[in-house]
Write a structure and sequence with these properties.
Blueprint (H helix, E strand, L loop, with lengths): L1 E5 L6 E6 L7 E6 L5 E4 L2 E10 L9 E6 L1
Parallel strand pairs: 1-3, 2-6
Antiparallel strand pairs: 2-3, 4-5, 5-6
């Protein structure tokens, strides 16, 4: 399931994966600048500084966030 998070500062969209251990990642789309933390479903997620591609070399990398 994917979610959309609006953040001020820019009009670009970025893919973000919220990863918690072995649980399936939750993919969200962030409009605007990527924040340091994201609040999602009552939890705070922190940017790791890591990213991965989604198999499409023309797509921007997907940022990885983990729970605080």
């Amino acid at each position: 399931m994917s979610y959309v998070h609006d953040n001020p500062g820019g009009t670009e969209a970025h893919g973000v994966d919220l990863i918690d251990g072995d649980a399936p990642a939750v993919r969200i789309l962030v409009h605007g600048d990527l924040p340091t933390t994201i609040e999602h479903e009552g939890r705070t997620w922190l940017a790791t500084g890591d990213a991965h591609d989604d198999g499409d070399p023309s797509a921007p990398p997907i940022a990885i966030y983990r729970p605080v």
